[in-house]
# Entry
Amino acid sequence: MTILQVDTILTLVLLSILFSFGSSRLPRLIKLVAFQGIVVSMIPFFTGHDMTLEGLVFTITTIIIRGIIIPVSIYTAINKVDIKREVEPIIGYHASIVCGLLLIVAATWIGRQLNISAIKDYTLLVPTAIALLVAGMFLLMSRRNAIAMLLGYIVMENGIYLVGTAISVRVRHIVEFGILLDILAGVMIMAIILQNIKRTFDDVDTAHLRSLKE
Amino acid sequence: MVEIIFLVPFLTGILAFFLPKALCRSLLIGTGALHLIFSLLLWEKRPEAVFNYYFAISPEGLLSLLVISFLFFLISIYAVSYLKESDIHTENVFIGFMLLFLSSMTMVTLSDHIMVLWIAIEATTLTSAPLIYMHRSSASLEATWKYVLICSVGIAMALLGSVLITLSMDIGNVDVPLSFSAITGVAGKLDPFWLKAGFIFILVGYGTKMGLAPMHTWLPDAHSEAPSPASALFSGVLLNCAYLGIFKTNKIMHAAGLGHFSGTILMVFGLMSILAAATFIIKQNEYKRMLAYSSVENMGIIAFGTGIGGIAVYGAVICMIHHSLIKSSLFLSSGNILLGYGDRLIKNTGDMISRMPKTFLAFFAGFAGISGFPPFGIFMGELFIILGAFRAKHYIMAGIFILSLCVIFAGFAGHVMKISFDNSKKTIRLKEKPGLIWPQYILLLTSMGLCFFIPDSLYQTIVDAISAIGGGF
# Structure
C-alpha cells in the first residue's frame, strides 16, 4: 500500500514540527531540521511517479544536501564561533507547542477544503506542506537567535519542496534545482554574515540588530 | 546571440576579482559601455535567443534592459570617481559584484521561462548583498542580514507561486513549455483558482523585492547602508526587475480574464506602499533613507497605476522609466553629500547651495522631478495615473493617492530645504569633479527630454508592452 507509506512518513514530519517548536537548544533543532529534510526529500520515492535516472540522482543529491551537508555546516559553524546554544524564544516553548498543534489542525482542515485531484491519494500531503510553510514562518518570527531563524527558513523551504515534488510533476526537477541553488548559496552567504555578526557583536542574538528602525 | 549580453558582464565580473585597482575601474566603464551598445543593438534588431526555451525578447523586458544599460553606464562613470574619494578598500570586490549584479539583472529582463526568471531574481539578491556590506560597519551588516533574510523569504514565496501556476496548468490539462509567452497563449484553459493563488504568492514574493509595503522593511536600510553608486542601482533598476516578474505574471492573469482580480490586488498594495511612505518620510532624519522611502512611494505609484488599467498603465510605465532616471541621479547626488559632509544625518548638513552648488543643482532638480513637477517625466506619469483612476471611477482611491502625494511632497520638501539652505558649520571635503556631477545632469536631462519628446520606437514598445495587461488610451 503506497498510500499508507506516504502518510506514515508525513506523520514523522508533522511530529518533527512539534518537536522543533519545543526544542530550546540549537544542536537539537539542527538535528530535527536535518531529520525533517531527509524525510521530506525521500517522499518522491514513495509517491509512485516513474523514477527516471535523472530523478533518482536529484532525489539522492537532495537527501545528501538537506540531511547532511547543510546541518553539518551549520553545526560546525556554531561550534567554531562559539555561539549561544539557546534559541531565545519570543514566544515560550509551551505556547509554541500549542500553536503548533493548532497549526496542524488548521492545516488539515484547509487541506481538506482544497481537494486537489492530482494528489487525492495522499491525505496528509497538502496539510503537511502547509504546516511546514507556516511553521517555518513561525520559527523565523518567534526566535531571536539568528541560526534558529535560518533553520526556520529551511523548514519553510522544506514545505515548498513538498508542494513542488508532490503537486507539480511537470516542474519537479527545476523546482529541486532552484531550491538547492537557493539553499546552498543562501546558507553560504548567511554563514559568512553570521561569522561577521559574531565578530561585530560578540553574539548572534538578532536583538542587537535593532538599531536600524523605520 | 541574445545571451551574450549577460554573459559578458558575468565574465568580466569574475575577472575583476583578480585584477589590480586601476584596471578594474576601466573594466567597469568598458563593460558598461559595451553593455549599452549591446542593448541598443538588441533594441534595433530584436533577434531570437539561442536558448529560446528559456530566453526571449519581450517589449517590457527590452524597456527595462535599455534603462538598466543606460543607468549602469552613467553610474559606472560616477562610481569610478566615487571610489577615488571614498574609503572602500576592497575596490575590486565592489566592482566585481557590481558587474555580476548587472549580469543577473540583465538575465531577469531577458528570461521567458518562469523558473529562469525566478533563478535570475534570486541571483540579483545574492550578487547585490555584498554591495550593501562594503563599508563593513555593524549597521551595514545589519542591513545586509535583513536584506538577505527578508528577500529570501520573499523569493521562496514567489517560488511557491510559480509552482502553483504549474499546478493550475496540470489541472487545466495544458501541456506547453513553462514560459510566460507560451502560458499567456493558453491562459484561458488554466484553472482560475490556482492561478489566482499563484499570482498572490508571486505578487507577495516579488513585491518584497520590489519594495511594496508591508514587505518593504529591508529597503530603507539597504539603500542607506550601501555605497551610493550601489544604492542608485538598487533603486533605479533592481526594483524594476522585481516589478518585471509581477508584470509578466499579470499578463497571464489578463489573458486568463482575471485582470480585474489582479488589478484590485495591485491597487491595494500600491496604495499601502504610498501610505507607508507618506507616514515614514516625514520624520526621517537621514537623507538616504528619505530617498529610499521615496522609492517605496514610487513603486507604490507604479503598482497602483498598473492595477487601474487603461491609460494609467501607460502612466505607470512612464513613471517607472523616469523614476529610474531621476532617483538614481538623486542617489548619486546623495553620494556627493555624504562625501562632502561626511555624515548621513540631515541635521548635520546644510547650506549646500553655496558649499556644493553643482551638487545642489542636481539634487534640487531631482527633488523637483521626483515630486512630480514638470518638466520632468514623473509629472506626465502621475497625471495619466490620476486621469485613469478618475476614468475608472476609483474616486476614493484617487483621493487617497493625491493626498498622500501631497504629504510626501511636504515631508520631502522640508528635508531638502534643510539640506540646501540651512546654516552649517561643516567644512566640505569634496571637490566637485566632472565625474561626480555630469552623470546626474545627463540622467536629469534625459528625463526632461523624454517628457517632451518620446521617440516612436520607444512609444511603440511601451504600447506593445502595456496592451497585454489592459493598458492603452
In short: Chain A has one domain: 2-203. Chain A is about 75% helix and 0% strand.
